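hey so i finally got around to running the thing on that chain from the lab meeting. sorry it took forever, my laptop kept dying and i had to restart like 3 times. anyway pasting the input first so we r on the same page abt which one it is
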Amino acid sequence: MGAKAAVIGGGTGSFMVLSGLKNYISNLTALVSMADDGGSTGQLRDELGVLPPGDVRQCLVALARSPKVRDLFSFRFESGSFKGQTFGNLFLAATEKMTGDFRASMELATEVLEVAGRVEPVTLDKVTLLMQDGDKVVRGEHLIDDGIFTVRRPELWLEPTPAVNLEALAAIKDADLIIIAPGSLYTSLGAALVVPGVGEALSKSKAKKIYICNLMNKPGQTDGFTVQDYASELERMAGTRFLDYVIYNTKRPSDELLKKYAADGELPIELDEKTKTRYKLRGTELLADEIWGGVSKSDPLAKSRTLIRHNSDLMARKIMQIYFS
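ok and heres what got predicted. didnt touch it at all, straight out
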């Protein structure tokens, strides 16, 4: 198929979108935020001074053609001094240290994994995500992601101010489809959209630009947010109105899971039926039937991994339906 697609995000959300979309589109580019400083990735950043490999590794694995090597890159050590680390993160960090070039490490991983597509960081600079929360500045993606905000719609920025990766801008310019993956609104997504030049490129792109909305609100950060609130925050952080479509889930999770989530203050994201939007809203069943089982007990962030997940193929089918409409 001749369509060119760019997927913007980081971590599990991009992994799920790419895993489904690669079965329908051969020309895929994953554009990855580069401010991750938590868990095993944060440990490698702190101890080795490398760029964060975790989200890049997940996107490479999602696009990999080699099943055995894909499993190897996802393998997480459960004991010893490497406990909590994935082989893929260590591979990328080791290659960057050996070559002094993160791009070289990605190119080698792309070759080893037989990746069907490309992965491009939105910036190749070492950056830290900051957030203005009332009178306080919160420094670091991990602290922001775990925080309870005192304000709604906080300001985000990166330090030092990064240079945008020109290859990422080219992918946006050349794309027929641009998908904003589901993910943490103010970290995975915000950290990509506030890179200077990304918002302008999105506004100028002639592609169909689609956001796949999250399934559940995040306590202390997006309480009470509707589907439209998420979309407006994306555009605010990008500094431009760029969305053409917003896809949202209409399938209700099981009562058992809803009860579990409600105990932690997490509620499903609802559509505001009264709010008119410039972009087109497309509701469909996106929820995976199976409870997510892909979390290792040795994962430093295992407790924060959600059980409710999008269905990769259902997302991809809805994206392709919009592409052909």
